[in-house]
Input
Amino acid sequence: MNETQQRIVEAFERHVESHGYAKTNLDDVSRELKISKKTIYVHFDSKQDIYSRVVARQAERMKVHLAAAVAPLPTYAARVEAAVKSIIEQGRAHIDETGEDEWLSEYEVAADAFRKANGDLLRELVQGGMDAGEFREGDSSLVEKMVAAMIVEYLVLVNSDPSYDRDAELLERIGKFVV
Output
């Protein structure tokens, strides 16, 4: 990203953190940055386009942190389990922070960024387990996509009913699937 894009994304992120995605508008961002709304549209196609950059940055930071946290664990199975558990916990925390309607308005953009960042980490862990002979051989990309889909769909259930708690069962089933 160039400097102007970076400034726009950072301002947009601040507004989302303060007001939520639905209440963040580009007029406020342009006023804060003292640029025209047209300038924003020169660099981004839409509000959703900017938000996808915000979420991608957050997801990438989360991936780096999570990869470092699970690296010391003794097996790939333990690393995958810890990563999935952390992803679910973070998803629950985000649902608690945003509420059902706000989460749904963010879902489409956030789910793609989530799949990309966390998918990369899951694929790396699964491939590492396959290479080490800990997991059966297969297509680590397919495994990653299926696990990410399970987590995202589970979080959709949690969003509609935050008291829904089958985290342990999901972890167990994903563990059996991956190995």
Observations:
- The longest helix spans residues 100-131.
- Helices lie at 3-19, 26-33, 37-43, 47-70, 76-98, 100-131, 140-160, 167-178.
- The CA atoms of residues 101 and 112 lie 18 Å apart.
